[in-house]
Amino acid sequence: MYEIIDNYLNTLLNDSTPAAPVWNIESIRQGKQPHWNYIDGCMITALNLLADRSGDKRYSDFAESFIDYYIDASGSILGYSKDKYNLDDINEGRVLFSLFKKTGKEKYKLAIEALHDQLLSQPRTETGNFWHKQIYPDQIWLDGIYMAQVFSALYEKNFGNADYSDIIEQLSNVEKLMKDSSTGLYFHGCDVSKKAFWADPVTGCSKNFWLRSIGWFLIALSDLSELLDPVSVKTVNRILRNLLTSVAHYADSDTGMYYQVVNKGELPGNYLETSGSAMIAYAMLKAARLGIVPSEFADLGQKTFDGICKKYLKEENGKLCLAGICLVAGLGPENNRRRDGSFEYYISEPVVTNDAKGVAPFILCYTEILRRIR
User: Fold this and answer.
1) At what angle do helices 106-121 and 94-103 cross, to 10 degrees?
2) Which pTM does this prediction carry?
């Protein structure tokens, strides 16, 4: 089954250019000009990891040429604006650390500093957590932990004083504010001011457990577990272990996959979703490999990955496609009240094929599978 994956990925790369990657379905649908964004960032991060794991330079060469297109000699980043204070824009910066180390090109270091400069002035909630974006005041989203905190850790490790205290404080606040005591799952977002139309008036949290937001959080935790010092990592590993234990209860018994709204698989319209399932599988496989959770979790992760392959990796119009990917979901802002965090909202968003928000986690998971079978 796995032999077709490399062919699938090569097709995506062959059909893509830095200006027009076929995996960025949002940009294609909205007719956006090429710009720095987290969707491409997820894909390039995954390709670099696959190159490391497989030894195939095609993936890392493509990744380097892709990033080169977006950063000029002065370190300016195409389509990036600090003033948006958008944590999503930090994510693609993860790949710059390895590129700077590999090439020594100063432009990568300059771009890293520009993104870090955003975080230095990023607005914060009264709890000390980053706002998810300028347009989402006082709001913490699980997505944002992945988008910003791994970059922060890499910066501290490479150019800072290895001080991870702010990262740990923000994670601890997320656990305190956004964890549901009855299920052990985490809500998608929390408005600390409790003013957002979607926020619970008592807790400030959104209404449901969106699969991909939990997936982002789990990838962040599993990646941070390899970066932090032995003291700081204890908090990360505890949160990771507890969440993996909780979410495992909601796996589909046949496929090992997870539902778009995690704990409501029995409701009409809910569906087994690719991106969040791959994220959970990656976190399970990696956490088991690192000894954070028992080895049984690696078997669960493998079952999920195999389930995705069997259910959603299929040929369409003569080409392999990865289907079952939620295109996008969010909370608000005020002028978009359709995005209210309800069950009905989450299942109403488009489901697409070959979007990097699903493909990239699938590749990440594949790198862990390769560790098991080779």
Assistant:
1) 150
2) 0.98
pLDDT of residue 3: 81
Distance CA 294, CA 212 (A): 23
pLDDT reading at 1 higher than 70 = no
**Alpha-carbon separation of residue 235 from 26, 36, 175, 209 (angstroms):** 35, 32, 10, 22
Q: How much is the mean pLDDT over the chain?
A: 97
Checking if the pLDDT of 2 tops 90, the result is no
Residue that the structure tokens 């088991």 belong to: 288
Helix (H/G/I), strand (E/B), else coil: 288: helix
Q: What is the largest CA-CA distance in the chain?
A: 54
DSSP character at residue 131: P
Find all residues with CB under 8 Å of 356, minimum gap 6, and list them.
Answer: 21, 23, 24, 39, 40, 42, 43
pLDDT digits (tens, 9 = 90+) for 315-356: 888 889 999 999 999 999 999 999 999 999 999 999 999 999
Q: Is the pLDDT of residue 374 over 80?
A: no
Are 312 and 324 spatial neighbours (Cβ–Cβ below 8 Å)? yes
Give the pLDDT score at 317: 84
In three-state secondary structure terms, 96 is: helix
HSE, side-chain direction, 13 A CA sphere, residue 155:
24
Residue linked to tokens 């699980």: 142
- 255/313 Cα distance (integer angstroms): 13
Take residue 211 and report the two structure tokens written for it: 């699969």
Show me where the domains of the chain are located: 3-373
Domain 3-373 carries which CATH code?
Answer: 1.50.10.10
| 319-324-325-327 Cα dihedral, nearest 10 degrees | 100
Tokens of 85: 């204070």
